[in-house]
């Protein structure tokens, strides 16, 4: 067993207490860091305010010594600096050539894109602005149209938005891949109104499909997404988009007042009840 | 909170009766208003706190808006999808007492003049606003906001997309006048908002060439709703597809030159009248805004995000201007968020009666809710 292990801690405390009692804070054993040569810090031997307060004038010298003794050697540290400084210029001059690194132009564009994305939530604009999916409706300002508009404007204004435009195109492609309506093969019988309604419904479903990044979105957006996913209107739009539901044309072939399923001919939604276009004559005074 | 469910119909508009504290009228359409019948519900809140149907009228096409006759307690006007307005007497059955047909497309809004009580107006997808008297089958006046020129100026989308394949004409609803309203302070003032993102202020006393002032309100995206403040005659609120509610001071609009007679110009003066803004007031487009009838600085909004929210206009403390905006406030000045609807909320109205704060809302989920928006 080494001497260090045999050391009784109680004895050490007693020895320290004895040393303090004797008016000295010098450890009973000198440490390896003791360096007794005076340095610039200790050339001035004038009384230090803190030490004079703590230990009075009689202890001043010994306290200074302890403080000094416990410091690492400054000269040895300076030597280390001299040794290390020789390779710093060499290290700083090293270059890492990463063949996969993005170009500076790309980095600039991406930083612009990031700052832009922080400002504009992708779900700020909702295209369903009214009862627009009516039988004659082709007036739905689709989300993609708005995107195209923004992209075109940006392309003309600054090169920084080219990346944004490309990104939006990619995002659109991803969304299209995520939601591809199942178009029935016998859809050719659909007339112009029905096809138009189907197109509008597809746009609505696309814009209401939560983006891939919704997991990291805010709680407000996620609550909207959850509500949209449970919306019966969106479910109807999905049905129309996939061709499962469409307008039921009346005998004249021009107007429609009901929805139905082409696959089985069943009515979807409410049955239309004809109402005569008449009024209580003379009732208004 | 009180609830009434309209089986098979989606709510589009609701309004408290100006004569009875427990009576409401709701305009609704089947199949979410896409195709099919419409229905006018006359509802009453009984002493037990239940909402009961007192009368109803089935219509040939969907109903999009509603307005009580301010001079007759039993008459209700509805805006219908076939381009007609129909005036119903709630004491009768089945048919309306008058039909007003001039619009070529769906009629999206109707409003009764609160000052003279003798006229009402309608706004339509055909791009026109018409002023009517219930005594005449023909309209008294037709107003047309100048959308096309301005839209071409502010929105180069047409030019861009017209060169592309499969261009289907996105701007088909740019001319749609989503809402129009009489001023509650001046019987000759009308405000409207359109798909071209402009609000138009009309003074119907002036000749047509000078009667309107147009100003861009929602950054090129569709402006869906507008409302006059009930206490400050010069203040209006608008909402639109950019999810923002904006508050405007019409005294600051430039009435000469650009917006009326000559070609419009892109000058900052278009937006100089905006005195407050609630950006991202909702998660999706805002379908309806309406000022409180009891407070000059409280308004309510309804949205496609299926919520209704009550806001405090922080630019005014009820007495004077504070020069603050809601956009700088932590909660944006939101006082209450109503989340019970499960489809798009289209209709909201403040109760004129009892303790201030009670409101009615209706949505495409077929529900009518009566709730307290001020806690």
TrEMBL record, chain A:
<feature type="domain" description="PEX18/PEX21 C-terminal">
    <location>
        <begin position="190"/>
        <end position="266"/>
    </location>
</feature>
<protein>
    <recommendedName>
        <fullName>PEX18/PEX21 C-terminal domain-containing protein</fullName>
    </recommendedName>
</protein>
<keyword id="KW-0576">Peroxisome</keyword>
<feature type="compositionally biased region" description="Polar residues">
    <location>
        <begin position="255"/>
        <end position="264"/>
    </location>
</feature>
<keyword id="KW-0832">Ubl conjugation</keyword>
<dbReference type="InterPro" id="IPR056940">
    <property type="entry name" value="PEX18_PEX21_C"/>
</dbReference>
<dbReference type="Pfam" id="PF25098">
    <property type="entry name" value="PEX18_PEX21_C"/>
</dbReference>
<feature type="region of interest" description="Disordered">
    <location>
        <begin position="133"/>
        <end position="155"/>
    </location>
</feature>
<keyword id="KW-0963">Cytoplasm</keyword>
<feature type="region of interest" description="Disordered">
    <location>
        <begin position="255"/>
        <end position="285"/>
    </location>
</feature>
From TrEMBL, chain B:
<keyword id="KW-0653">Protein transport</keyword>
<feature type="repeat" description="WD">
    <location>
        <begin position="279"/>
        <end position="312"/>
    </location>
</feature>
<dbReference type="InterPro" id="IPR036322">
    <property type="entry name" value="WD40_repeat_dom_sf"/>
</dbReference>
<keyword id="KW-0963">Cytoplasm</keyword>
<protein>
    <recommendedName>
        <fullName>Peroxin-7</fullName>
    </recommendedName>
</protein>
<keyword id="KW-0677">Repeat</keyword>
<dbReference type="InterPro" id="IPR015943">
    <property type="entry name" value="WD40/YVTN_repeat-like_dom_sf"/>
</dbReference>
<dbReference type="InterPro" id="IPR044536">
    <property type="entry name" value="PEX7"/>
</dbReference>
<feature type="repeat" description="WD">
    <location>
        <begin position="100"/>
        <end position="142"/>
    </location>
</feature>
<dbReference type="InterPro" id="IPR020472">
    <property type="entry name" value="WD40_PAC1"/>
</dbReference>
<feature type="repeat" description="WD">
    <location>
        <begin position="236"/>
        <end position="258"/>
    </location>
</feature>
<keyword id="KW-0813">Transport</keyword>
<keyword id="KW-0576">Peroxisome</keyword>
<dbReference type="InterPro" id="IPR001680">
    <property type="entry name" value="WD40_rpt"/>
</dbReference>
<dbReference type="InterPro" id="IPR019775">
    <property type="entry name" value="WD40_repeat_CS"/>
</dbReference>
<keyword id="KW-0853">WD repeat</keyword>
<comment type="similarity">
    <text>Belongs to the WD repeat peroxin-7 family.</text>
</comment>
<dbReference type="Pfam" id="PF00400">
    <property type="entry name" value="WD40"/>
</dbReference>
